[in-house]
Design brief:
By secondary structure, the protein is an alpha+beta fold. Among the domains are: 2-59; 119-275 and 391-452, no CATH class; 319-376, no CATH class. The chain is built from 16 helices and 16 strands. The protein has helices at 37-55, 62-74, 83-95, 103-114, 119-130, 136-164, 234-244, 261-269, 285-292, 317-340, 369-376, 392-399, 403-414, 426-452, 459-466, 491-500; strands spanning 2-7, 13-21, 24-34, 76-81, 172-181, 205-212, 218-225, 251-254, 273-278, 301-306, 309-315, 357-360, 364-367, 381-386, 470-475, 482-487. The strands form 4 sheets. The protein has an 8-stranded mixed β-sheet, sandwiched between helices. The longest helix has 29 residues, at 136-164. The two termini are 35 Å apart.
Length: 504
C-alpha cells in the first residue's frame, strides 16, 4: 500500500491509499481533498499513519512531519505554567479565598508556596511564567488595601473552612509564639530587640502569636512588639478569637513558656479550661518530693492535686533517653569551654546547662557533679497543669497535639520563608504576615487533601511537580482555531493529574 495524491482539474488534491490486488491497483481508502498545501499535507500525514497501522510499519514521511511540526511551532501563542492553578488554585477556591476577588491576592498567596521570595521577585516570576505583569506601586498599594480592608476577612474565611472540618465544632485550641527578625539595625515602635527564638538577638524583631485547631489548621494570629514577654501575648489572641466568633467554651493548650501566675489567674477568671505544660522542677519542695517518689515506669502517669488545679505527671523511656542525651551534649560543651578558659563567673546562671557550673576557690570554674546528679532524677518526667474536666488520658492526648503548632512555625519559616522580613511600614509587615497565614492555610489543605486521598506524596513534592506542568496554546494555520493542550509527560505528572482530575 502507498499514499497517492491525485490532483484534479478543479484545483483540489485528493488523497487516497492504493493497494495492488490480483495485479490491479485499487483504492483501499480515501481521505478527502484539500485546496491548500497545508491541508493536503495534513491529510497525507493522516493517510501515512493509517497505512503504517494497517501494515505494522512505523515509518513516516519525516520530512513532511518536520515541516508540519515547524509550522505548528510558528503558530504557538503562549506556553503557560498551569500546574499551580490546577492544584493549589483549586484548594485556594475550595477554602473560599476566591471570595476575595483581587487577583493579586491570589497570586501572592499561591506563589508564596511556590517561589517564596520578595514581593517584587514574585512578580518577576509571575511575568516570566504566567505573563502577569504588576508594578512595584501596584504591589504596595494592594498590601495597604489588604491591611486596611481584607486582613480580618482572610482570617474569617480560614476559620469558616476549618470549622467545616470539625462537625462537632472546635472545643480545643493550641497557642504558641515565635519571633520574626528583620534585616535592619534601628528599632522602632514595633520592631525591637528581645529574646529571639532564632538566635538573632542583635536584630530587631516582632513576636508572632498563632492559634491553631487540632491537626494544626490556622485559626487566628496577632503580632506584638519584639521585646514583649511571650506570656503576655496569649490572652489578647484568645480573647479576640473567642469574641469574634461568639464562642462559649474553649480549652486552651499551650507549652510551659506560657505558664505564668498572671495567665492562670486570667484563664480562671474568664472561665477558660486549660492544659499548660508545667515547670515541674520549679514546683514547691513538697510537690517535687511527691513527684520523685512516684517511681513511674514507661507510659505510666499520675495526678497530684494543687488546690483547684491538677498536676498530671507522666514518664517516658524515650523522653528519658532524650534528656540524658541533651544533658551529656551540654556538659561536653561546657567542659570544652572550661578547658579553653572561655568561661568566667559571669556564666554561672540558670540559663540552660550553665546551671551545672560553680566556682571552686577564687578563680576556677568546675562542673557541679551534685547538681548533675540531681538533674538526672527528672529524666523522662513531664508535667501538665490543668483545670480541665477531661480525664487524665484525654488531657495528655490533647497536649501531644501541640507539636502541630511547632510544625506550623517550621513550615512558615522554611517552606514559606516568613523571615527575614524586609518591609518597613507596620501595615505592610502585617500584610506580609497575613499572606503567609493564608499560604499556610492552603498548605494545610493540600496536606489534608493528600492524606484523604491516601497519596504518598508530600505537599512539597506536589508543589515541585506542579511547577513543571505547562499548557501550550496555538492557532491552527488554516482554520485559525485556538487549541490548548496541557503537557503531561512524566509519571509524576500523571499522578498529579489523576489526584486533582484536571484532565489534559
Amino acid at each position: 500500500m502507498y499514499v497517492r495524491v491525485l490532483k484534479h482539474k478543479n484545483g483540489r488534491s485528493y488523497i487516497q491509499v492504493i493497494e495492488k490486488r490480483g495485479g490491479k491497483y485499487v483504492v483501499r481508502k480515501s481521505f478527502g481533498s484539500g485546496n491548500t498545501p497545508e491541508a493536503v499535507q495534513k491529510l497525507k500525514l493522516t493517510a501515512d499513519r493509517w497505512v503504517a497501522n494497517q501494515t505494522g510499519l512505523q515509518e513516516f514521511d519525516f520530512v513532511g512531519e518536520r515541516e508540519l511540526f515547524n509550522k505548528l511551532l510558528d503558530n504557538i501563542s503562549s506556553l503557560k505554567l498551569v500546574g499551580i492553578e490546577f492544584t493549589l488554585g483549586r484548594l485556594f477556591d475550595e477554602i473560599g479565598f476566591n471570595n476575595i476577588e483581587d487577583e493579586l491576592f491570589r497570586h501572592l498567596v499561591l506563589y508564596r508556596l511556590v517561589y517564596p521570595k520578595s514581593k517584587l521577585k514574585t512578580t518577576e516570576y509571575l511575568y516570566r511564567y504566567e505573563g502577569k505583569q504588576y508594578s512595584e506601586d501596584e504591589i504596595y498599594r494592594y498590601m495597604d488595601k489588604l491591611h486596611n480592608k481584607q486582613k480580618d476577612r482572610v482570617q474569617q474565611i480560614s476559620y469558616a473552612h476549618t470549622l467545616s472540618l470539625f462537625p462537632k465544632g472546635i472545643q480545643v485550641v493550641f497557642y504558641d509564639v515565635t519571633t520574626v527578625y528583620f534585616e535592619i539595625d534601628q528599632e522602632d515602635e514595633l520592631r525591637k530587640t528581645g529574646f529571639s527564638k532564632e538566635g538573632k538577638h542583635e536584630n530587631p524583631q516582632i513576636v508572632l502569636g498563632l492559634l491553631v485547631s487540632r491537626d494544626g489548621y490556622p485559626l487566628a494570629y496577632d503580632i506584638f512588639e519584639g521585646n514583649k514577654f511571650e506570656g503576655h501575648t496569649m490572652m489578647p489572641v484568645i480573647d479576640g478569637f473567642k469574641q469574634k466568633y461568639n464562642l462559649e467554651q474553649l480549652i486552651i493548650v499551650a507549652d510551659s513558656g506560657l505558664l505564668s501566675r498572671s495567665n492562670i489567674e486570667q484563664l480562671q477568671e474568664q472561665n477558660y479550661e486549660f492544659i499548660l505544660g508545667a515547670r515541674i522542677k520549679n514546683e514547691s519542695t513538697s510537690i517535687k518530693d511527691k513527684i520523685l517518689t512516684l517511681q513511674l515506669k514507661n507510659g505510666e502517669s499520675a495526678v497530684i492535686n494543687k488546690g483547684d488545679l491538677r498536676l498530671i505527671i507522666t514518664y517516658s523511656d524515650k523522653r528519658a533517653e532524650k534528656d540524658q542525651y541533651n544533658r551529656k551534649k551540654g556538659i561536653n560543651r561546657l567542659s570544652k569551654q572550661i578547658r579553653s578558659g572561655r568561661l568566667t563567673k559571669d556564666h554561672i546562671n540558670k540559663r540552660g546547662y550553665n546551671k551545672f557550673l560553680r566556682m571552686e576557690g577564687q578563680i576556677n570554674l568546675v562542673l557541679d557533679q551534685h547538681q548533675i546528679a540531681q538533674d538526672k532524677k527528672w529524666d523522662g518526667l513531664k508535667g501538665y497543669l490543668t483545670n480541665s474536666k477531661l480525664n487524665k488520658d484525654q488531657l495528655i492526648e490533647n497536649y501531644q497535639h501541640l507539636w502541630q503548632i511547632e510544625k506550623a512555625f517550621r513550615v512558615a519559616k522554611t517552606e514559606l520563608k516568613l523571615r527575614p522580613v524586609f518591609h518597613r511600614r507596620q501595615r505592610r509587615i502585617e500584610a506580609h504576615i497575613c499572606l503567609n497565614f493564608a499560604a499556610y492555610k492552603v498548605y494545610k489543605e493540600l496536606e489534608r487533601f493528600l492524606k484523604e486521598n491516601k497519596s504518598s506524596l508530600s505537599p512539597q513534592k506536589v508543589i515541585e511537580i506542579a511547577q513543571n506542568i505547562h499548557q501550550i496554546e496555538l492557532t491552527t494555520p488554516t482554520t485559525k482555531d485556538v487549541l490548548k493542550k496541557t503537557i503531561i509527560l512524566s509519571e509524576e505528572q500523571k499522578d498529579i493529574e489523576r489526584l486533582f482530575q484536571f484532565g489534559c
